[in-house]
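LOG
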Amino acid sequence: MKEKLDAIRKEAIQKMEQADTLDKLNEIRVAYLGKKGELTEVLKGMKDVSKEDRPKVGALVNDTRNALESKLESVRAKLTLKVREAKMKAEVIDVTLPAKKNNMGHSHPNTVALEEIERIFVGMGYEVVEGPEVEYDYYNFEALNIPANHPAKDEQDTFYVNDKIVLRTQTSPVQVRIMEQGKLPIRVIAPGRVFRSDEVDATHSPSFHQIEGLVIDKGVTFADLKGTLAQWAVEMFGPETKVKFRPHHFPFTEPSAEVDVTCFKCGGKGCRMCKGSGWIEILGCGMVHPKVLKMSGINPDEYSGFAFGLGLERIALLKYEIDDMRLLYDNDIRFLKQF
């Protein structure tokens, strides 16, 4: 038994010294010290040793085990150090190489324009609100004084989910939802994505963004609407900006108007951007129709208000002199890094 243990010790130590990787060393450990290792097999043969010799044999087995474990730890420490040195050598940094360029991202032109618009209106005391993009037909049309037979509900203009649900064509439904809450007075803007069945070209897209505003209070007049939009235009496009209101028709406002601003490229003198007129159409607005107020649970004899809506992409295109709306969505870094 002693000769057998000595042979196991000698053979195991020799293999440990020859091991050049931690994986090979672990295989040697399993082969000699594992549950099915050679030293374990010797212990299983203890049942054949006489009672008198068992203590001596047990002591020899323990000595052999301790010697192998000690050698194992010694070789493992050397191999670990060797692996660490090789890794540090491989990962050494060449300080003479050029530094990597840190490419920082920045806001999209749409986001820049939106944040500027929100900043202006929040400064006037408005609250920014949002609503669902998939909307009930009632909120998108009927509650805005657009009956079932109105052309705006034509399938060629609208994405219908079913006869009662549509992808919203404007953010005006958010205004209706706010009015239905009955918390007066109201002073909000509602930005968000909207959908219309338009062909993609330089100025149209089936998915774009709108920002709509709503004010409801006692004694609100068209003069308040004009003053608000004139102040917004000055802060958005510059101190020399003037506004012009042209009569128009919207089902949910009465009276209604289209709003033009003096061209911020030529100052109203006439240029390519404003097509020589000196004015640029910018948004639609009007006083909230009494029927819309009544359908939302607001007494039109006691309260009045105004609403306005503008296209976010249109503002971005004009402000940054971009001539094709598709550039905003192509994700071309050569274009986006200009802003």
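LOG (cont.) second protein
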Amino acid sequence: MPPVKPMLAKAVKRIPPGMQYEAKWDGFRAIVHRDGDELVLGSRTGKPLTRYFPELVAVLLEQLPERCVLDGEIVVAHGGRLDFDRLSERIHPADSRVRMLAERTPASFVAFDVLALGDTALLETPLRERRRLLEQALAEARPPLHLAPATTDAALAERWFEQFEGAGLDGVVAKPLDLPYRPDARLMYKIKHERTADTVVAGYRFHKSGPVVGSLLLGLHDGAGALQHVGVCAAFPMRRREELVGELEPLRMGDVSEHPWARWAEEAAHEGARLPGAPSRWSGKKDLSWVALRPERVLEVAYDHMEGDRFRHTAQFRRWRPDRDPSGCTYAQLEEPVRYDLSEVLSARV
């Protein structure tokens, strides 16, 4: 019965040998519970996603076994690749908008594990057997329901790692073949791309615990020379957070009118530029204020991939670059993955 938390993965640098390999999908992780005419889409945190994806509910009721629990990912495709921004728009409080977006940006469900079939719970069943049962259960699946490609060929997994990023996926997941299903335990392995970029540190937010740095606000210059907010760098030990306040104090601006992001609090300003503090339904009543710094310091960060013109996930601190000029921190330095059509991913031969 819902809620059930999904099994998780821990990050490793290389694809480990002797496992089952799958693409790492960039969407909303979801546990699907079906019992006759009842169907629940449970999120990673256990909260239901059902009302936000009515088009998926209809498809899953039509195609899934009468009683089952599946693990998978809700994704939205656009232009032949995954589009996380369009997926995020689907979480909206207004029912009318939910139904309008269900038609305009319909979602798909990619299934990659099965936790129960009929009256049989499969949590203690090894992965190799669960995969066999999943393939049988979804043998007649039709879009937008998909069976995730999987392989035990490590060389093929390496090719997937290189190719699938061009379709908006962000790596490979490796799963031990004898692994039972353990909700909320990090027993699988995820291998993600890592790249570096020189960014401009143009501000910071305080940590929720007090007057220490919570996150550094990062920027890149676009083709017109405007500094665009591209993400944050946030993982620091508490002592380092305290040190950063002192290190950055000489750059702190009393008058922010000359800062490139000076209009961040104006909703209209976000329409033509990427600024920190963009209003969204995710932020709610969260304090989005920040400390403005003169955009003079360059930080090298590691990132996995881009979502449009921003870092998809939190960037990782690598080193200060006093030898670099902030004006050289542009989008042009970023590596662009070779395009790869999402339909090729979903029909990958194993």
